[in-house]
Design brief:
338 residues, alpha+beta, Fructose-1,6-Bisphosphatase, Chain A, domain 1, D-Maltodextrin-Binding Protein, domain 2, eight-stranded mixed beta sheet, 9 helices, binds 6-O-phosphono-alpha-D-fructofuranose
């Protein structure tokens, strides 16, 4: 019987590094830091169901250790791994208001900045729905011998060197791009390795899934409600009516649509005119991934990765997924009212 060659994420990244003559190994080491933290967070997320046995957050467990909220724990694990690795000079995290400048990182190799949402969708943990970590990596602009500046951090998505996410679902997967396509790796806990399971992921140009919280439709623009009605019309030639799928965990909705085709929308609403999702560490990284997979991401009119950030935790409206579906949504949403 022909044995399938297992390619681990570590091997895959090393091979990618060898193909790039300019590579110095720093990015490879950053990925190793991320992989380590991902395995630790995965271990603790998998125990979340035992919280009544292990104690709820804010208490101490049977070992007398403080039980932390999982998103706090995840944040601490990724910051620790990236700080100890020595190749990251600064971290932007959804859990931290200010830039986390990594001390002693003025070494020549510490040129990378990581923006992350350490555990997105954490409110879904109690109901055992999939959650995820999202990360974006780019190079600092200022010289390594100086302190990292806000300008180093407020770079548009086009400047990303790499982006990825870990989804803690029925299996744990890490999906990433460095601009050479998108590849997915599934954690084999029996050997403690992420193994290549989804090579060269591409998103179908068309899909039949739309993902939006229609509970907020009273606050949507008339044009967006027109698009939602379009999704519900019967037209076999365009696979309509589409199926509504909305888990309330961005990573889970995005990952399903990436593999099957579809559109995810978190739009501007009357109470949240900039939507809910964050540009730097939710929208930009997944826009990079979806575009590398042949899809599209905009704020309704402008490509997400062309938006110049003004604040670290800036929110933007988001339309992301199959190219033709995002284009159709843009066409209907930007049509002049009759
Ligand atoms: P709503 C989770 O809290 C999150 O940040 C995303 O993961 C998810 O897509 C969105 O919020 C859900 O928001 O307003 O529909 O509950």
């Amino acid at each position: 019987m022909k044995t399938q060659k297992v390619v681990t994420l570590t091997q895959f990244i090393s091979e990618q590094q060898e193909l790039n003559p300019a590579a110095t190994g720093n990015l490879t080491r950053i990925f190793q830091d991320i992989i380590l933290a991902a395995k630790i967070v995965n271990r603790d997320v998998r125990k979340a169901g035992l919280v009544d046995i292990l104690g709820t957050h804010g208490t101490t467990n049977i070992q007398g250790e403080e039980v932390k909220k999982l998103d706090v724990m995840a944040n601490e694990e990724f910051i620790a791994a990236l700080s100890l690795g020595g190749d990251c000079c600064a971290i932007i995290s959804e859990e931290n208001e200010e830039i986390i400048r990594v001390p002693n990182s003025n070494r020549a190799s510490s040129k990378y900045i990581v923006a992350m949402d350490p555990l997105d969708g954490s409110s879904n943990i109690d109901v055992n729905a999939s959650i995820g970590t999202i990360f974006s990596i780019f190079s600092r602009i200022s010289p390594v011998s100086t302190d990292v500046t806000l300008e180093d951090c407020l770079q548009k998505g086009r400047n990303q060197i790499a982006a990825g996410y870990i989804i803690y679902g029925s299996s744990t997967m890490l999906v990433y791009t460095t601009g050479q396509g998108v590849n997915g790796f599934t954690l084999d806990s029996s050997i403690g390795e992420f193994c290549l399971s989804h090579p060269n992921i591409t998103i179908p140009k068309n899909g039949s899934i739309y993902s939006i919280n229609e509970g907020n439709s009273i606050e949507f623009s008339d044009a967006l409600n027109t698009y939602i009605s379009y999704c519900k019309e019967s037209d076999k030639a365009s696979n309509r009516p589409y199926s509504a799928r909305y888990i309330g965990s961005f990573i889970a909705d995005f990952h399903r649509n990436l593999l099957k085709g579809g559109i995810f929308i978190y739009p501007a609403t009357l109470s949240s005119p900039n939507g809910k999702l964050r540009l730097m560490y939710e929208c930009n990284p997944l826009a990079f991934i979806v575009e590398q997979a042949g899809g599209k991401a905009n704020n309704g009119t402008t490509n997400i990765m062309d938006i110049i950030p003004k604040q670290l935790h800036q929110r933007v409206p988001l339309f992301i997924g199959s190219e033709n579906m995002v284009n159709k949504a843009e066409e209907i949403c930007s049509a002049k009212p009759l």
